[in-house]
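During the no-cost extension, the postdoctoral fellow (Dr. R.K.) reprocessed legacy sequence entries with the updated structure-token encoder. One reprocessed record is reproduced below for audit purposes.
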Amino acid sequence: MKAACLVVASLSLAVGCTPEFADDSQAPVLIRVSNITGTSGGGAGGGSGVGTVLNSDVSVDGSIFNDNATLTVENIPKNQNPDTIFGRINDVVLERYEVRYVRSDGRDQEGVDVPFRITGPMAALVPVNGDVTVPITVVRHQAKSEAPLANLRNGGGSFGITTSARITIHGRTVSGKVVTTTGALQITFADFADQ
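Re-encoded structure tokens follow.
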């Protein structure tokens, strides 16, 4: 009887010890953004991209450009047992991404405090235990013509806006299991040429 109680207690502890990330989906793999490098559009006027920090110029010599990023996405098996065979059915097809901008002061109303969120398609295959590098647009040029970024142009009343761009990637294993992950890129918006 004592042995049976120990087995039941051990099983209940084991169930409670599963990390949250492993329970997020039914897929036997998870994806992770292991690197983000931002690149400012236009290449002039003070904008720059260094790792996970991007200075986004809202106007470069009177012109507006997209800002881009390069993401490295990994496909990691949840079961790290080397005897487990992971066939190509657990390779992940990246389908789309979403960028949502948030501020640390809690002011996150889209079109007022931060740019509107954007979505875009992806088409890349991430093999099990492998990675892939994919380019995305993190700030569309349209956003620089709309509030609040348009308010930064030509000293329009604000010095700058710093946000965290939450980049969520949606994918699916070849066998059809949904997987998602989120990475972050700090973006400071300003009219650098006028400062």
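The radius of gyration is 21 Å. The beta strands are 29-39, 48-50, 53-57, 67-77, 92-102, 118-126, 131-139, 161-173, 178-190. The remaining legacy entries will be reprocessed before the final report is submitted.
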